Amino acid sequence: MNCILITGGSSGIGLALTEACLERGMKVRSLSRRLPDVSHPGLDALSLDLADPDDVEENFAPWLASGPAPEAVVLNAGILGQLGNLAEVPLEDLEQTMRVNTWANKLLLDALLAGETPPAQVVAISSGAATQALHGFAGYALSKAALNMLIGLYAVEFPKTHFTSLAPGIIATPMQEELSDMPDRASYATLQTLHETRLAGGMRSAEDLALDLLEAFPRLLKGPSGQFADLRE
Ligand SMILES: NC(=O)c1ccc[n+]([C@@H]2O[C@H](COP(=O)([O-])OP(=O)(O)OC[C@H]3O[C@@H](n4cnc5c(N)ncnc54)[C@H](OP(=O)(O)O)[C@@H]3O)[C@@H](O)[C@H]2O)c1
User: Is 0.90 surpassed by the pTM of this model?
Assistant: First the structure.
């Protein structure tokens, strides 16, 4: 693989994957609001707000056309949104979470798949929360469940590209700190467990995960397109 597009390359999993790809001599094209704190000639980064459909529609396609077409795309950018009881989360917050975690990926895929050289592989970073109703995950869980179906539908519509939605496991990143430091976490069993796991140093590093992802990508191509997979299984 020569060129990979990674969304959310400025932090956590996306940053570790960006660095691992650059170390292997790949060209990395990266999208996030902050630019990754990486200086490397192989990195081409665009500052883009995935919560703003106008920003995406105006600026993504021209930038994409200005460089090499990515052979693989990792739709990794994501936000937690408001955690807690779904009944208490305002619709505006759910809409914002859906815009970043789900709808932005539709806009990016539409531009990528309409191009002359569509990617051979798309991996969307999903979550175990997409398939289990974990108390407190609210809009995040909804957005990742919808992301899984979005990936399944694109797989049906675009058989020349291989699609996977992939849960990475529990990884020590800024998002995980936000999740496990929620002030009233004791009311939510999974959030409390995450907090204890993090304090006990039981979470994998994003750097370790990045190496596993690079090994997993070719393996995923051998399975059916459009499936949800958990990297831990
Ligand atoms: N860490 C875990 O244990 C875990 C478990 C399951 C799934 N995941 C998934 O893994 C992915 C990466 O998470 P992470 O843990 O690495 O979190 P992170 O460190 O918070 O990174 C999130 C990335 O998403 C980008 N992003 C957020 N909002 C954006 C926006 N409006 N426009 C553009 N980019 C935006 C951020 O960049 P900017 O802030 O610079 O915009 C950042 O690069 C997420 O999809 C998450 O749901 C993580």
Answer: yes
Q: 142 CA to middle of ligand 1, Å?
A: 16
Residue range(s) defining the domain that contains residue 140? 3-169+212-230
Domain harbouring 40, CATH code: 3.40.50.720
Cα-to-centroid distance, 165 and ligand 1 (Å): 15
Domain count, the chain: 1
User: From residue 117, how far is each of 7, 48, 160 by CA, in Å?
Assistant: 19, 22, 11
Per DSSP, the three-state class of 36 is coil
Q: What is the pLDDT of residues 14-61, one digit of tens each?
A: 999 999 999 999 999 999 999 999 999 999 999 999 999 999 999 999
Sign of the CA dihedral 201, 76, 135, 52?
A: positive
Looking at ligand 1, which atom is closest to the CA of residue 8?
43
- 112 domain-assigned: yes
In ligand 1, the atom with minimum distance to the C-alpha of 15 is 43
Span from the CA of 103 to the centroid of ligand 1 (angstroms): 15
Establish if 205 belongs to a structural domain.
no
Q: Ligand 1: does its nearest atom lie under 6 Å from the Cβ of 168?
A: yes
